Amino acid sequence: MATLNFGKTVSLKQAAKLIAAIFNNRIMLLSEPGVGKSSTMKALGAMYPNHHLAYIDVPNMDLGDVCMPVIDHETKTTRYYPNARFGMHTGKPVIIMLDEFSKGSPPVINMLHPLLESHNPRLGDIPLHPESIVFLTGNLSTDGVGDNIKAHTLNRITKLVVRKPTFEEWAEWGIANDIEPIVLAAAREFASDWFASYLDYPEGLPKDAVVFNPRMPTQSYVSGRSLERASNIIKQRDKFDDNSLIAALSGTIGEKAALDLSAYIAFADQLPTWESIIKSPMTTPVPDGAGACALIAFNAIAKVEKDTMTPFMDYICRFSPEFQACFAINIAKSSRQKIAFGNTAFSAWVAKNEDLL
Questions:
Q1: How far is Cα 31 from Cα 303, in angstroms, rounded to an integer?
Q2: Do the beta carbons of residue 221 and residue 193 sit within 8 Å?
Q3: Distances (CA, A) of 118 to 95, 128, 339
């Protein structure tokens, strides 16, 4: 599939770099629902920390939410002033994300249209700071969720199709954004199902598919977005009973995925405690199942500190090479990478196991 899709789709990271590099163009990110297009705003904000970030939810806007006429009594004329949410009054360059632009009402889209111009872009009667970035998002026409753009708008934008993330890409984001380790571990096992795309099935998805299916648009399904919601539910599971837990998960990611995820919740409640692992890394039992091993690895990435890194390395080195590598690769991409690479035991493991990375 990588060869077939070369030059046709980009990852979210590639999309952010393109927007930053050619910011005078207006790039529109298109993908199926739940891929994570909105996270591009955060990535661009990290690249340009001095820009003002303006997230604009286009479908929920009326004309008055974009610009309002203001009377100039001295000249006996009116001017259009933009809403403060666009940040143009700050004096800073702005990053404006016109989210779900293609679902906006025609009057709102017309009012936003001057932002799409390459020369002298403006909103109302106020020119855009020359270092500002404007990008748009929308869904693919095949998604069947009401996206439509007219020809004169299409001619002013660069359409960019964003593919679904792989498990590895999503896990990197998930670790950085405090996704529950149970969800990360389950996603690793069910990656081929949970990160599948209907675009890869021209004849239609299998009947038991758990991802977005335009032929069944009202169903709950697995996506990066819904997995984040599932993480929120699991983190609070001690506050309600198991029936409520499964019902909530089913209404978030679908019944099949919820039942698969529930097995990992059972793993979590049966595994050795973090305290026992750190206190007795050489005698604490090592689980047999792949799911339990993955869960311990992801849980450690969320918990390990400078003083617990060495005992955990003693413990994880009793696992199979697959799960040692799972821990090492993912912590190296996380915010705890300095803890890892500053640890003698971890550095020694990397030097010894370069072939696994």
A1: 34
A2: no
A3: 15, 11, 46
